[in-house]
Amino acid sequence: MGHTLFGALGLFSLNILLYCGHAQDVPQPVLTVSPSWTSPGDSVTLTCSVEPPSAGWRFFWYKAVPDMSSTYNYYTFKLLAGGTTGTEQDSYILHGQTHTAGYKCRAGRGDPVSYTQYSGVKFVWSGGVNPAASLTVSPHRLQHFSTESLSLICEGNSTEWRVMKVDEDGYVSSCSYWGEMTGSTCNTTRASSGVYWCESETQFSNAANITIHRGDVILVSPVRPVTEGHSVTLGCKLRTENLLYNVDFYKNNTLIPNPARGELLISAVTKSDEGFYKCRGRKSPQGLETSAESWLSVKCEYEF
Ligand SMILES: *[C@@H]1O[C@H](CO)[C@@H](O)[C@H](O)[C@H]1NC(C)=O
Ligand SMILES: *[C@@H]1O[C@H](CO)[C@@H](O)[C@H](O)[C@H]1NC(C)=O
Ligand SMILES: *[C@@H]1O[C@H](CO)[C@@H](O)[C@H](O)[C@H]1NC(C)=O
Ligand SMILES: *[C@@H]1O[C@H](CO)[C@@H](O)[C@H](O)[C@H]1NC(C)=O
């Protein structure tokens, strides 16, 4: 009885809030970015969708600028060049996207312009190193056990850094919510899967798609893209032991023939080695334990 009453009151006041905040009938567009991981020189397409779609909208595009003094909003947003009048197209192409960056959009129509709400912020990530800002993950791999402690280290051309994460639901948060930032290092034992990067007032680092695994087996794979022609070794680690001896590696769910039992050596990687890798222990105590998948990224030789 009491609960129902509270529930009803809650709903009632929520309605008033929405109404007074005029959020009720102002649409919120959804921004998508494609691709979400870039290599130097890529073009990235931002698309701003308003529901229901109708003619007459103009679209406004914004870039995220880290606001180091804000522990809640994190960013201020700057109109992209030439954006004051908006674009007629609901998409915007960024040429030569090199580094990690965040974007927002909104639509508007009429004179004076009435705007939609802003979309949520969406990021374009780069795994490649930006010398002015770089993220190092320790231990040096993309997958970690849920019981492990993790260090995320920022280096580059700034004295003030913060480590950011977008979790699997698209929620953005900084290290201060799930770890401890000391100087330019974030240490945490409460990490969750998501994309992590460092940022300063002016720079975004490379990003890493980190998987925190509750199971007993993880894949050991590099955090940074591997340069074409270089070698890479993938391993498979058991929670209670070091490397497993008897493991199978899979790429895009297909078993890779591998004469070496404990690890997978690719002596000269090519673009065709890119894909989702996972490993499976053949003789782990629980039987056949499978790791999560991680993307192995390969970069061209001329990229830095
Ligand atoms: C580092 O910052 C200084 C001053 O802002 C700038 O002149 C220099 O080019 C930057 N170096 C890199 C590698 O970005
Ligand atoms: C963060 O963790 C690493 C590895 O456990 C440790 O060496 C380092 O001292 C820690 N840093 C801080 C500031 O606690
Ligand atoms: C593996 O899957 C990814 C993503 O679906 C794809 O881009 C890649 O080309 C695939 N690789 C192979 C060898 O099928
Ligand atoms: C991160 O990796 C997981 C597991 O491989 C994948 O499902 C997810 O799509 C990746 N996230 C991004 C943003 O690339």
Automatic annotation (TrEMBL):
Q: Where is the Ig-like domain?
A: 27-116, 215-297
- Which keywords belong to this entry? Disulfide bond, Signal
- GO molecular function: any one? transmembrane signaling receptor activity
Q: Which PROSITE patterns match?
A: IG_LIKE
This protein's record includes keyword Zinc-finger = no
Signal sequence, start to end: 1-23
Q: Matching Pfam families, A to Z?
A: Ig_2 (PF13895)
Name it.
Ig-like domain-containing protein
